[in-house]
Specification:
There is one protein chain. The protein is an alpha/beta fold. It has a single domain, classed as 4-Layer Sandwich (Metallo-beta-lactamase, Chain A), CATH 3.60.15.10. The strands form 2 sheets. It has a 7-stranded mixed sheet. The protein has a 7-stranded mixed sheet with strand order 7-8-9-10-11-12-13. Helix 3 crosses helix 5. The longest helix has 14 residues. The protein starts with 8 loop residues before the first strand and ends with a strand.
Length: 286
Amino acid sequence: METSSSSEFVVQFWGVRGSVPAPGKDTVRYGGNTSCIEMRVGGRRLIFDGGTGLRMLGKSLQPNLPIEADWFFTHYHWDHIQGVPFFSPAFIPGNTFHIHGAAPGGLLLEQHFSEHVLHLNSPVPSHKVKANLTFDDLKFGKNIITLDDITIETAPLNHPNGAMGYRVTWQGHSAFYCTDTEHFSDRLDENVLHLARDAEVIIYDAMYTDKEYHNPKSPKVGWGHSTWEEGVKVAKAAGTKHLAIFHHEPNHTDDFLDQLAVEVKDTFEGGFIAREGMIFSVMPEK
């Protein structure tokens, strides 16, 4: 069975865009696929969300069958589930995916996944899924999950219809996946600070700049997303070493993100712009 190296802890970005896929000549370098990241931790594979970047992850896994992975969902807006019907390993017998998340509306996760993630709008019938799927119903909010010697903590994020952040810790090193959250105007979010504490990296929903967020002609207040400037505040307050700017606005071009990278680096030395295919090492491989 295909697994990752038992001594590595890395994050690979497969989809870094927010809201809607943004393919085209102006987004080639950073990528236009929506949210999906993979963590390879201590011999286990963790997948977070199922945006269109999931299809590329699936293609990369194809030569390495059979596959076993734990799959976590922050929430179920379309840009985080669009890739699920196109995740080819899910349609191959012998693969196993352990699915973790909190289903909305009091549904069990298995029912929600079948009826809403693989819903009637999907071009692929749900009965064509041949991989073995198991379901772990989490409470919306704070949970502690243990996978061998990996600890995963969750906390609620500030997003319409709710979302959860995930902090993954292994051998004293942590990565925090913090997408689809909106900062508060009068304070830093205590849940975000808690999961970000002393982490090696926080992958942060920095969809807007402060200027865009407060634009009087089209303010984004209440849309459920944050800014890179607020991400820097969190990283500094929580003692986070690195800050990955993530969930890029669909209209942010490669040139825009190039300039943003300079601004972020000038403000926070450990800041960088996430791009498709990028691999970040949370801890040096032994």
